[in-house]
């Protein structure tokens, strides 16, 4: 094929893709006959009614000497691992506030951490473009440090997020600034699958977050600087199952809804969204109304759902931590405006396994545990 | 002299454009293939949307499902409750807890 013919084919293909994208956008819009909040209101639902003393900070975990960037709970025994700008991981007993381990990292530029399902190992990653695994039962070296037991290398960019596959201590998924996600075998250190990159339908910019479906651990979603979230089947690396459009900025956080049929996103555009995984429908937008429209909305850094999904916790860059009623799309509490709040940006959030506590991590160097301390009415 | 230079440049241009053309062609061909594959995916998705139900059809089930699950962080929730929900308020409630600094 001659150069001019090839260029013509390129122009035609670009025009076709743009036209199809526009048609898809229109068609999706026609299917959005309502959203969750409008429907819930039409069915007579009212917002969750918190009094200001209902969600209390019952623990403050102090010990990091730098901003907290990431945290993860164990499935049991209420332990938390946190990663900080101080170049350390700390393992906490959340109930007693005691530190059980402090791990000085070979690379101080850590961005993410995760607990293995059995609670015996932790993983972390960051600007070293690798994911390091530490076995908490190993003997400390002569400096009193836990040695690295495995390094997962292969990414060509920073590791932004990592999560163990639920129930599997040997499988981990990472997201990276190299535009890919990778499924790893932790025992061999090998990459099992690469999602995106050379294959079409991958992200076209840095991937910032990942969330694995607890109801079906073959499925996971990723969020990216390309303003989309994508759904992947871990068994099919060649293409994303679906791409979710809607955000106007980086998708910093993705989290599956407890039922595994939907997932939430948080973005640089200041909004959170709820998507239906199967259909791709945008079910709800969670957006703050700003008094001064010239202001830039604070960005959403992190999200988590309560165990029923009724509450969406969202951390913002201005220190707010909104508690959204997921069904009514109303802010029912702001954990960032209480007396016991963090003094800086909330960078990470996570719910305990039984849903009884929320842990928040902040640039103020602390972690806080929040639980319901009010009068509970059981229906 | 200018004409000679021009002739020399024209002669050398005849060889290097072939090389850069080949590289350029490969790049554009790869991009074209990617776009055509994306077009096929988008067409599949459009066909899928033609058969898809509207948002409202799934919401009744969604609401009932969320409201039926016990949730320890809600002021009003379905049971059963669990005694583990209260552990955060048992024993000494230390707002500050362990304060040792890692050096």
Question: Which characteristics define this entry?
Answer:
heterodimer; A: 379 residues; mainly beta; four-stranded antiparallel beta sheet; 2 helices; 29 strands; B: 103 residues; mainly alpha; elongated
Brief overview:
The complex is a heterodimer of chains A (379) and B (103). With 379 residues, chain A is mainly β.
What this model shows, in words?
The complex is a heterodimer of chains A (379) and B (103). Chain A is mostly beta strands and 379 residues long. Chain A is built from 2 helices and 29 strands. The longest helix of chain A has 29 residues, at 3-31. With 103 residues, chain B is mainly alpha-helical. Chain B is 60% helix and 2% strand. Chain B contains 2 helices and 1 strand. The longest helix of chain B is centred in the first third of the chain and has 49 residues, at 2-50. The radius of gyration of chain B is 34 Å and the shape is elongated. The relative contact order of chain B is 0.04. Classes of the chains: A mainly beta (379), B mainly alpha (103). At the A-B interface, α1, α2, β1, β28 and β29 of A face α1, α2 and β1 of B.
Low-confidence stretches of chain A: none
Assembly type of the shown chains? heterodimer
Largest sheet of chain B: none
Distance between the termini of chain B: 75 Å
Give, in spatial order, the strands making up the sheet with the most strands of chain A.
1-28-27-26
Low-confidence stretches of chain B: 1-6, 8-15
Helix coverage percent of residues of chain A?
Answer: under 10%
Strand content of chain A: 35-45%
Summarize the main sheet of chain A.
Answer: 4 strands, antiparallel
Report the portion of residues of chain B in β strands.
under 5%
Principal-axes shape call of chain A: globular
Shape of chain B: elongated
SSE string of chain B, helices as H and strands as E = HHE
Give the CA-CA distance, first to last residue of chain A: 72 Å
Structural class of chain A: mainly beta
What is the count of DSSP helices of chain A, taking H or I runs of 4+ residues?
Answer: 2
Biggest interface and which pair forms it? A-B, 87 and 61 residues
Measured on Cα atoms, how large is the radius of gyration of chain A? 21 Å
Query: What does the average pLDDT of chain B come to?
Result: 78
Count all strands of chain B and give the number: 1
Gyration radius of chain B (Cα, Å) is: 34 Å
Main location (chain B): membrane
Coiled coil (chain B): 25-55
Domain G protein gamma (chain B): 29-103
Keywords (chain B): Cell membrane, Coiled coil, Membrane, Transducer
């Amino acid at each position: 094929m001659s150069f001019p013919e090839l260029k013509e084919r390129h122009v035609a293909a670009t025009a076709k893709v743009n036209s199809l994208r526009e048609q898809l956008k229109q068609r999706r819009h026609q299917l959005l006959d309502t959203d969750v909040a409008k429907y819930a209101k039409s069915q007579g639902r009212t917002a969750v009614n918190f009094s200001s003393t209902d969600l209390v900070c019952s623990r403050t975990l102090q010990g990091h000497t730098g901003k907290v960037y990431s945290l993860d709970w164990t499935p049991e025994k209420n332990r938390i691992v946190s990663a900080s700008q101080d170049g350390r991981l700390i393992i906490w007993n959340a109930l007693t506030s005691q530190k059980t381990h402090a791990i000085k990292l070979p690379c101080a530029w850590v961005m993410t951490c995760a607990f293995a399902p059995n609670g015996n190992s932790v993983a972390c990653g960051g600007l070293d473009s690798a994911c390091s695994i530490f076995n908490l039962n190993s003997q400390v070296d002569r400096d009193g440090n836990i040695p690295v037991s495995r390094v997962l290398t292969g990414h060509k960019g920073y590791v932004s997020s990592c999560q163990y596959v639920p129930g599997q201590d040997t499988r981990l998924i990472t997201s990276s600034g190299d535009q890919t996600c990778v499924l790893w075998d932790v025992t061999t250190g090998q990459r099992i699958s690469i999602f995106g990159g050379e294959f079409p339908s991958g992200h076209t910019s840095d991937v910032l977050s990942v969330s694995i479906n607890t109801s079906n651990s073959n499925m996971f979603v990723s969020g990216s600087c390309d303003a989309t979230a994508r759904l992947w089947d871990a068994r099919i690396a060649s293409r994303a199952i679906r791409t979710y459009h809607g955000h106007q900025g980086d998708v910093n956080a993705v989290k599956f809804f407890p039922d595994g049929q939907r997932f939430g996103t948080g973005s640089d555009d200041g909004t959170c969204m709820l998507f239906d995984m199967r259909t791709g429908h945008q079910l709800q937008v969670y957006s703050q109304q700003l008094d001064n429209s010239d202001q830039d909305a604070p960005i959403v850094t992190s999200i988590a759902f309560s165990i029923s999904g009724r509450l969406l916790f969202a951390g913002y860059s201005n220190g707010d931590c909104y508690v959204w009623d997921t069904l009514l799309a109303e802010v029912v509490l702001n954990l960032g405006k209480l007396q016991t709040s963090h003094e800086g940006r909330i960078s990470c959030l996570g719910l305990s396994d039984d849903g009884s506590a929320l842990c928040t991590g902040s640039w103020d160097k602390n972690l806080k545990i929040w639980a319901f301390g009010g009068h509970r009415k059981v229906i | 002299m200018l004409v000679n230079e021009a002739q020399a440049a024209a002669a050398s241009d005849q060889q290097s454009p072939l090389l850069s053309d080949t590289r350029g062609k490969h790049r554009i061909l790869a991009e074209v293939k990617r776009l055509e594959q994306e077009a096929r995916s988008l067409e599949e998705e459009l066909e899928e949307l033609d058969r898809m139900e509207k948002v409202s059809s799934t919401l009744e089930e969604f609401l009932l499902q969320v409201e039926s699950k016990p949730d320890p962080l809600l002021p009003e929730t379905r049971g059963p409750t669990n005694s583990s929900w209260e552990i955060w308020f048992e024993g000494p409630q230390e707002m500050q807890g362990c304060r040792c600094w890692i050096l």
